[in-house]
Amino acid sequence: MSIVPSLVAFNKKFVEDKRYEEFLTDKFPDKELVIVTCMDTRLVELLPKALGMKNGDAKFIKNAGGILTQPFGSAMRSILVAVYELGAREVAVIGHHGCGMTEFDSEKMVGKFVEQGIDPLVIKTLEDSGIRMDKFLRGFKRPEENVMHSVRMIRRHPLFPAAIPVHGFVMDPETGALEVIVEDYREVER
């Protein structure tokens, strides 16, 4: 049975009771910050609370592992939009210990595609056209390495402004404790 009916019923009551009012803000991040992080369910509420963030304080960009896999992908586009259009003046890349993308096995994932009915010919065609599954589905050995990879990709991006600081952190997904991997000391223009 689908979860949709219960979501829609809850939403209807949420709106009727005007429970949205406590979350009202605009599209510009109050703390002028964009955060790139993992989609891990443990971080959904913990990460913003552990940083003292409320709704509207930052732009959050989430994906599996908080990985920037390509310089012209959707995550990097979102960072550029946050900086150029929405007023973000700093970027924080926040990985976490115990991430599901640590030691991720791309071959095993491809096997799951086939188990779920994806024709192996589709995968071969994608590989033959230059989409390498090991790169597309890449994980990492340590969250610190992944954070630095993403920090470097952002800093070196040809369209990213040199004056915008890019910081890197790793969080404990149980306690919210934050470890600074790199703090960028570039001038922050406000």
TrEMBL record:
Pfam families (UniProt xref): Pro_CA
Reactions accelerated catalytically: hydrogencarbonate + H(+) = CO2 + H2O
Keywords of this entry: Metal-binding, Zinc
EC identifiers of the protein: 4.2.1.1
Cofactor or coenzyme needed: Zn(2+)
Keyword Protein biosynthesis: no
SMART domains: Pro_CA
Enzyme class: lyase
Keyword Zinc: yes
InterPro entries in the cross-refs: Carbonic_anhydrase, Carbonic_anhydrase_sf
Lineage top rank: taxon: Bacteria
Family recorded in the similarity comment: Belongs to the beta-class carbonic anhydrase family.
Protein name: carbonic anhydrase
Protein's organism: Cohnella soli
